[in-house]
């Protein structure tokens, strides 16, 4: 970030509370798509982000073919729409082979996917054909029309069309489509590397006994899992001693090898925290107080040229701010064109009698048996209550400065959308 934007952003965001929407747009505007791409095999492409459009060089199917096991017929003009016709069966065409030209009035046994021979103009399914004892003739009781059960050339994909667009996150069905046009490798954006570390003298690693005043470091595991789930490579320095030198060293070590640095905790105004002064020393830091709950403190800056996001320390705040702010930022960096989380609408099973100054991201469960899905609150919405996140189907956005009755329609993010 240049000095001009640093000045303007700190002027914009320094003292007063910032809206969640402004923080999100600022972050998304600041994220730049990684420039690094690589070719991967189809088997290795699942979940990766396509870095260029895929054009088909062929039609799919490449030839008119039968949609059924049955008989293909070269109907004469005067046989169209006529009932009770009989035809000599003169050929047999299996999938993978080609038949001979079919003369008017003749039929050929044909199987699903086999090419329609020259001269043939319709297919009747075998269940509708009566085969003569010597199997040399079929009779069809019902009227037959032209082009029945024929899959025409290019029915699925036309040559030269774009079948998959750059910026798409590759799904199993995309891999199938790419394979169907003969593409064996896809050019994708390289995985971004996210460097993380954690500070806080109260933190103990799971597996060790707790001593008085200590808590287990849960954010470390949440953040690493979230980053892995969204397809990042993670460089985890683990717990760093809460000293300025150690924090600066950790930041410098990560800066040289990562596309993004993230931490949790230490971005409130506590005196014990060295993340803030360390980032400021090596780059720049905007410490935002966001008008939201849980959350509030969020740090965004740069360590030299590498972007830095400091999430709050409280586990729910850390999780929610990751989902709402970091995820779209990371997705944009990854080259994903679909980086914004999808907002659905739900109806509240609760009211709000007292307007609150901060937007709340409340953990809710959804009842889908009603016409508009119904959202119920987890009883404890504190930023330390991680059970609320585990219990929840998603997060409902309770607007700031608003009261509402039960049955109000609000924005909703499903947990699967927030961690995809
Ligand atoms: P801080 O943002 O560092 O002031 O931390 C706010 C709260 O989150 C405090 O109660 C911390 O103990 C807690 N906290 C900070 N880091 C972690 C962590 N890694 N795991 C669990 N809780 C944490
Ligand atoms: Mg702390």
Describe this structure in words.
- The chain has 420 residues and is of the alpha/beta class.
- It has four domains: 11-36 and 190-333, MoaB/Mog-like domain (Molybdenum Cofactor Biosythetic Enzyme, Chain A, 3-Layer(aba) Sandwich); 37-59 and 157-188, Molybdopterin biosynthesis moea protein, domain 2, CATH 3.90.105; 65-151, Molybdopterin biosynthesis moea protein, domain 3 (Molybdopterin biosynthesis moeA protein, domain 3), CATH 2.170.190; 344-418, Beta-clip.
- The protein has nine helices and 26 strands.
- The chain has helices spanning 3-13, 20-30, 172-180, 219-229, 244-255, 275-282, 315-333, 387-391, 415-418; strands at 37-41, 54-55, 65-66, 70-73, 85-93, 106-110, 122-125, 129-131, 137-140, 150-151, 162-164, 185-189, 193-198, 203-204, 215-216, 233-239, 260-264, 283-289, 292-293, 297-303, 306-311, 344-348, 359-367, 374-377, 394-398, 409-414.
- The strands form seven sheets. Strands 7-4-6-5-9-8 form a six-stranded mixed β-sheet, with no helix packed on it. Strands 16-13-17-21-20-18 form a six-stranded mixed β-sheet, with helices on both faces. A five-stranded mixed β-barrel has the order 22-24-23-25-26.
- The protein is elongated, with a radius of gyration of 31 Å.
- Residues 1-14 have low confidence and may be disordered.
